[in-house]
Design brief:
The structure is a homodimer.
Chain A lengths: L24 E2 L1 E7 L1 H13 L3 H7 L2 H9 L14 H20 L5 H17 L8 H4 L15 H19 L3 H16 L18 H12 L2 H13 L27 H18 L2 H17 L31 H18 L2 H15 L17 E2 L23 H10 L6 E3 L2 E5 L4 E8 L2 E9 L6 E8 L6 E6 L7 E5 L9 E3 L2 E6 L6 E6 L4 E5 L9 E6 L2 E6 L10 E3 L6 E5 L6 E12 L8 E3 L7 E12 L11 E2 L1 E3 L2
Parallel strand pairs in A: 5-9
Antiparallel strand pairs in A: 1-4, 2-6, 3-22, 4-5, 5-6, 6-7, 7-8, 8-13, 9-12, 10-13, 11-12, 14-15, 15-16, 15-23, 16-21, 16-22, 17-19, 18-19, 19-21
Helix pairs in contact in A: 1-15, 3-5, 4-5, 4-7, 4-15, 7-8, 7-9, 9-10, 9-11, 10-11, 11-12, 11-13, 12-13, 13-14
């Protein structure tokens, strides 16, 4: 593949170094100004992020920082050695939000003050030599770096670094970046290969520091951080943690054939690998990253984009082992998947990576935050049986104000606050729109700035209007619009309705190359007609079932709309689906109406298995209208049953 | 229901007290002398039990006893506070084996010496006041009874008591019983309801002591132990452990509607509840026990009889949540299910309880021990994908010589060594044969002893010959033979082939009441023809699949017989199944041959979900002969794939 060496000045989570070899680079200073994601981000800005300091105070995270600083007496509060990351992820979210607010000319005073206050707590907690971890400094954990299998010290460092980079990019502030650099320098002095003279030749079993160090290199230009990231990535798989899958230590990443182990750990590691491939141009690690991404997408991803099949060890299952009710699909894993996919999208320019991002954003990720922004899901199953939660079922799939292990909520906050970063890119010869949202996106062509505005009511309406706002006078450039993987029907037309004749369909991209003039507008119409989908027959969990999708949205049925419950519902696939706008429902959604039946269960005395010849399979009851709602909006009304996959007989 | 008050003198794990109100009581001094179970028990006696002391020594269990006794220096070896139970369960197994060997006039010297040696270690470890737990005595755990959520002290006491009762019943030895009584007396002094003056009003989150105390009451006649058992059973569900399901504390057992939480904990508790119902005659607890058993059997039991759907927390899933590859189905849970079911069978006289025992014995339980008796399964899934274990998959479903948490192997040993106890019963008016094995079974009728011999090659042959060996001269009595729930075709005839005309079919029992003479023989022929079964449509995990059974055996296909793997195999249900004797295979089994196909998977680029209208579902390839082997024999050759449920298209 050919790679450009783009200059970089993006303000989002990924900003390439000057030597980066990637096909695309993020759009500069993108904005989202209206529509679906704007509303979600507004909730995040008004409800989610502002509640952070109070929740971090009440959960003890800020206390732990003061304790480490010696400014209060007491003991560590909480159960986990990675609680500092809640603070860091919130700081990252708030930093991106400050950038948003600055662009929107909003009032940043009070949020900026909160950020500064908490940065001061972090800085005060740091030790002389740069080390910073409240679990170990408070004596809750014993011995720095003595338990890298579970201690999470470098994982915490990684989130500190990402927060510091965000704060620096968003505000220019140096304070948190200084803290992060001092910790990174300390780590660099402590960890290295045998023969390097550094005392520790091992890695943190929870990856995160790798991608963070790569970004710190990008922010500072200091290649030591990139080298350290490379050392950590390649240190995996050589037995430093007993070869444990849980620690991403069974096999070197370059030799791996599929994703495995703890989903978040695997995907943060892969984000770091993609960063390395981008910055070093090394083919072997680029190929390994692409190989693992494809193995994940093709065999280990739920319909919602959620990943991580198992509650036990929070890990990936076998290929095609994609259970419904026990789908773990941690919200953090969806976020990690998006981060990894975006790096691969930029590295390769392939649309499929952004296809998976879209699916994950609208479904497996977004379900993690309630509509009102006040409560959260840690686990995102595809089925909840009738009466499950009321019978004392596992509460991790019930919306909660905060968690004892609160990794997910601030992770959602930081992704939403930086979401504009994941929507568009440039390759120096034009602009690529990866995700559809109303806003402005900049790129470069013929060494000049180009700028387009997008207007759309996506995902409720498939019409996307793209207007050229700025363009070089007579140099042609290419506008690329992603044609979603799910889309079977579309039209691309000029503002006057005439079809765009010069469109080239290129592996998921609709590409229009021409000389543009300011005010030129093209309109993409994607058919959002609801559709039924089936799974590969190797997905045992959904044999004999279909699911409903509409545009990028996966739908589900909820007990709230079907008071009789869902355990016995059967869909009639011969009746066409109907989309129905419901502004009254769930903040305004398009529902999908389907036909079905409620089965009368078989009458068995005490054993639920019968002879195949003439079993009592129950009887199909009266016809039933099924109302499907977007999966992202589930569990916002009651705690009843839910299903994504519906039996067909 | 009417209840007799039988006198009791059985030597198995359950021996009723003089006041017991149960419909049946265990057969006195039953024996198994040949056939399928005799061979499994021979392996247990020759390989399983003898290796115990060496394994307990190398795993540190005996060291921990010496450490607690102060006879060695060092630290506790092992990771779990319940490691003493491995010793106790082995002592129980060895005790029952001593009884077997005595009956068979075998050489008991060396095993008896080992038992005495280990009993001496246990006795030496006991503290002055009767307390005994090496985890806490060695300082590994801090503070007696301070962590009953995880400390397992009464769980350990329960297994000690069961071992002591077994040793006393089997050998008459008082030594271990004295140890157990002293510990039980200590517990009785420590635990009791508010107002009793006892310091602790709570319970051990891992039940076991309840059923053990009931048995200690039966063995000693001391009603304090029964009262203490009743206190503990009823202490559950009132929040002593925060209402946690994992601790069996969400709801009082008498109010519960279904089994829930950790499967072994739930079922040991229910065994204790059934004991209480038997000894006290209290209807409420009898009804709760029956209600929970039916909920378990009808909605939470895998085809193999295995229970416990989840790896995470080792717990029951929702009703009809019965996954295949992630079925936990711990071997210990199968054993606990058998123990609970047997108590219910005796209490109620209903055949269904023994139906489930048969299914569990031949499948979910027996798979837990390798054919050679040298390795074990902790987890008993119903599906393993191709290449799963070689790709570093969870090893708990791979046969292992011993486990870090070795609860299952000695549990298998004790059940096999006392298996004859679960086969037959008497109600004072005749004899009931619950399970079919060659041996002798005694009962009582008209206040006289009755005695029958059974000859059968079950489960390979459905012919079961029952010969009356001893009978009162002219008093009629009823011989009851269980008609298995799976059996669609059978014949009952006299020795000369004429049908038994007076048979009454009574809810799973074939009852023949007559005046018998010594030498009278009747022959039951059960059709073992292999059959296909389907699940209730609410069992989502196996929609569109069938399973193969033959007699009491559940079958599976293994990769060892299908080198191309099983992930893409489809069964053709239109071709009849064929049974095939294979004396050469797996120690001699009947296999079932079926017709099928190997599907060519769909060709999808990177996403495994497609539109419903015309999906590429792959193509059925050439016909394939499928060879199914008994599930109990799986994983004795290679580590490849395995499936119980097979897709039909």
């Amino acid at each position: 593949m050919s790679r450009t060496s783009p200059a970089t000045s993006a303000t989002g989570p990924v900003r390439f170094g000057s030597q980066a070899r990637a096909v695309l680079r993020p759009s500069v200073a993108p904005t989202v100004t209206a529509g679906f994601w704007h509303e979600r981000r507004r909730i995040n800005a008004r409800v989610g992020i502002p509640q952070g300091p109070r929740l971090l105070e009440s959960a003890g995270n800020l206390h732990n920082l003061r304790l480490a600083a010696g400014s209060v007496e007491g003991v560590f509060v909480g159960d986990y050695p990675f609680q500092d990351t809640d603070v860091y992820k919130w700081l990252e979210a708030a930093s991106w939000q400050l950038a948003q607010d600055a662009v929107a000319a909003g009032d940043t005073t009070s949020l900026a003050a909160e950020v500064d206050r908490i940065i001061a707590l972090v800085a005060a907690a740091q030790q002389e030599d740069g080390y910073l971890n409240t679990w170990f400094q408070s004596g809750k954990g014993e011995g720095r770096y003595s338990d890298l299998r579970w201690g999470h010290e470098l994982y915490c460092a990684g989130h500190l670094i990402q927060a510091a980079v965000a704060h620096h990019r968003a505000t220019g502030g140096e304070g948190l970046l200084d803290v992060a650099r001092r910790f990174a320098d300390h780590i660099d002095a402590m960890f290295g290969p045998e023969g390097s003279g550094k005392p520790l030749d091992t890695f943190d079993a929870h990856p995160e520091v790798e991608t963070a160090l790569a970004e710190l290199y990008r922010e500072t230009g200091d290649e030591r951080y990139l080298d350290l990231a490379a050392y950590f990535v390649d240190r995996h798989g050589h037995g430093a943690h007993g070869g444990e899958i849980y620690c991403q230590d069974r096999v070197p990443l370059r030799d791996a054939e599929t994703v495995e182990g703890h989903a978040v750990r695997q995907l943060y590691l892969l984000a770091g690998a993609a960063d390395l491939a981008t910055e070093t141009g090394e083919e072997a690690i680029a190929q390994a990253s692409a190989r693992l991404w494809h193995a994940m997408a093709a065999t280990k991803t739920h319909l919602t984009g959620g990943v991580g099949a198992h509650h036990d060890k929070e890990d990936f299952g076998d290929p095609f082992e994609l259970p419904n009710e026990r789908a773990y699909c941690e919200t953090c894993a969806a976020i990690a998947s998006i981060q990894f996919s975006w790096r691969m999208a930029l590295l390769t320019g392939q649309a499929r990576y952004s296809d998976l991002i879209e699916r994950t954003l609208f479904n497996g990720f977004l379900a993690g935050m309630s509509l009102d922004g006040e409560s959260w899901l840690y686990v995102n199953p595809l089925q909840v049986r009738d009466g499950y939660q009321d019978a004392g079922g596992d509460q991790s799939s019930r919306r909660t104000r905060w968690f004892r292990c609160a990794c997910c909520p601030p992770n959602v906050m930081r992704l939403l606050a930086s979401l504009e970063h994941y929507l568009a890119s440039t390759d120096g010869r034009g602009l690529q729109i990866h995700q559809y949202a109303t806003g402005r996106f900049q790129g470069e062509a013929a060494a000049s700035a180009i700028d387009v505005s997008v207007n759309t009511d996506y995902p409720w309406n498939g019409r996307i209007a793209v207007t050229v706002e700025r363009t070089p006078d007579d140099a042609p450039w290419t506008l690329s619009l992603r044609l979603p993987q799910w889309c079977a029907e579309y039209a691309l037309a000029h503002a006057d309705g005439t079809p765009v004749s010069e469109v080239v369909v290129d592996d998921g991209w609709l590409r229009v190359e021409r000389v543009w003039a300011p005010g030129d507008r093209i309109v993409l119409d994607l058919s959002l007609a609801p559709r039924l989908v089936v799974a590969d027959p190797r997905v045992d969990a959904v044999r004999g079932c279909v699911a409903i999708e509409g545009g990028p949205l996966v739908y589900c049925v909820e007990q709230a709309d079907h008071p009789g419950g869902l355990d016995d519902v059967v869909i009639d696939t011969t009746v066409p689906l109907t989309a129905k706008e419901r502004p009254d429902l769930l903040g305004g959604v398009t529902t999908v109406v389907a036909a079905g039946y409620r089965r009368t269960p078989p009458q068995v005395a005490w054993w639920p298995y019968q002879g195949h010849a003439a079993p009592d399979a129950g009887a199909l009851g009266a016809a039933l209208e099924l109302t499907a709602v977007p999966y992202y909006a589930w569990a916002n009304r009651t705690t009843g049953g839910m299903r994504v996959w519906l039996p067909t007989d």
